[in-house]
Amino acid sequence: MQSSPLILEEPIRMASILEPSKPSFFPAMTKIVGTLGPKSRSVDVISQCLEAGMSVARFDFSWGDPEYHQETLENLRTAIKSTRKLCAVMLDTVGPELQVVNKTEHPISLQADTSVVLTPDQNKEAASNLLPLNFNGLSKAVKKGDTIFIGQYLFTGSETTSVWLEVSEVNGDDVTCVIKNSATLAGSLYTLHVSQIRIDLPTLTNKDKEVISTWGVQNNIDFLSLSFTRHAEDVRHAREFLSKLGDLKQTQIFAKIENIEGLTHFDEILREADGIILSRGNLGIDLPPEKVFLFQKAAIYKCNMAGKPAVVTRVVDTMTDNLRPTRAEATDVANAVLDGSDAIVLGAETLRGLYPVETISTVGKICAEAEKVYNQDIYFKKAVKFVGEPMTHLESITSSAVRAAIKVKASVIICFTSSGRAARLIAKYRPTMPVISVVIPQLKTNQLRWTFTGAFEARQSLIVRGLFPMLADPRHPAESKSGTNESILKVALDHGKAFGIIKPHDRVVVCQKVGDSSVVKIIELDD
């Protein structure tokens, strides 16, 4: 079983599967991104989500106005203070998303084998034979025989709430389609996806830019989820835009791969982006079903080798309305972890689902179980071979720290860092133990005022598998001239002890800079 992505003890004791898991301060090494919305925006529910394991809060501007999201964010800040749990903020752009405009919000019943007209005239009322869109170029983009999918926001995948259409005629600006399955569209927001067709709209729309330059700047967002990223130029354009917005030049850009075009240009997008989100809902429409798993595995592997976070969406859709996931969904979450995902995004499940807290808790438990059988040894060898020789100084030190921690069975790795890069490189090698990333603030000036860095860097590690940040006292330097900085190391060790991950006689691996050198140190703790 040496080549397997699983570690299974031989002989396998089936009874051991039923043994209860040990409780842990860290629900899982894999991070959970929760989308906050109507069912998850109160201080009480957000606090429970944080306690259950949510480490990144996603704000989706496909719906809701900035005032609504601001109120939710204020509640998040209150919850963070009361729970003392760090949480990063992700702004998800709308991008070139096509939407059905249903101003009345009355349910629309569509019958199989009948016709429906898609029109750009938003003054018309949505009906079973007419659906107004927010886009006037659809007739120029499609032809007879093309497939169009319309579903409730954050597609449920259920054929009773989403509909497949086949283009039968293009007439001026209108597109006539044959309905392939009966469905009822209920609510105000339905997204439309044309399979394998390019929509001529900018990736970062004017509406997106307005939201980022107001709401985003006001709230110092940690991550920008760039919807429908199709080319590396999309990421470069977004980064150039952020660079002119003060502190947002530190915001990390996660490219959201949602269609064939993004898949085709994946390698160049990965080079430019800080991380990748595999938007399997839309991708599952563009790709044949039998190819989805292949793209997921290949894309995550490329992210892992590049040392950039890979984030997977759409894992437990049925938990939007149910307390338990299906067997297939539970297996899907575990496979995402075994494939190498850094984080899981929960969309409808927490946004409008009936069980947001239970969903986060359940997904966290599945991730934790999968992590126990993740074959780190094989992964480590692949990563080292991929990097090749000669390694950079930092890559050599961080990979050595992981190898040492595994060999001495350390309970934790403590990494001192200013930029967060060293800690992310340690995480790249997937250590089996948590990594406490001690972020040391640095004093910087723009010639008008002095500010400390570090908060961004700490929060941005909340989406990286296995990294748990701690913002240090700025009076302690990240670099020491005379060995490990004992006072700040003691704070980090006390932090680990308080949460039960460090116990007497445990071994701890410390990675930090000493003068011009980087040092990996093994410490054995006393009583």
From TrEMBL:
Top-level enzyme category = transferase
Pfam families assigned: PK, PK_C
Describe the family membership recorded for this protein in Swiss-Prot or TrEMBL. Belongs to the pyruvate kinase family.
Any GO MF annotation of the entry: pyruvate kinase activity
Instruction: Please verify whether the record's keywords include Kinase.
Output: yes
**Name by which UniProt lists this protein:** Pyruvate kinase
Q: Which cofactor does it need?
A: K(+)
Keyword terms of this UniProt record: ATP-binding, Glycolysis, Kinase, Magnesium, Metal-binding, Nucleotide-binding, Pyruvate, Transferase
Q: Would the keyword NAD turn up in this protein's UniProt record?
A: no
Which reaction is this enzyme known to catalyze? pyruvate + ATP = phosphoenolpyruvate + ADP + H(+)
Task: Supply the SUPFAM superfamilies for this chain.
Answer: Phosphoenolpyruvate/pyruvate domain, PK beta-barrel domain-like, PK C-terminal domain-like
The Pyruvate kinase barrel domain, residue ranges: 30-360
Q: Which EC number(s) are documented for this chain?
A: 2.7.1.40
Q: Which residues form the Pyruvate kinase C-terminal domain?
A: 395-515
Please state the pathway this protein functions in, per its UniProt record.
Carbohydrate degradation; glycolysis; pyruvate from D-glyceraldehyde 3-phosphate: step 5/5
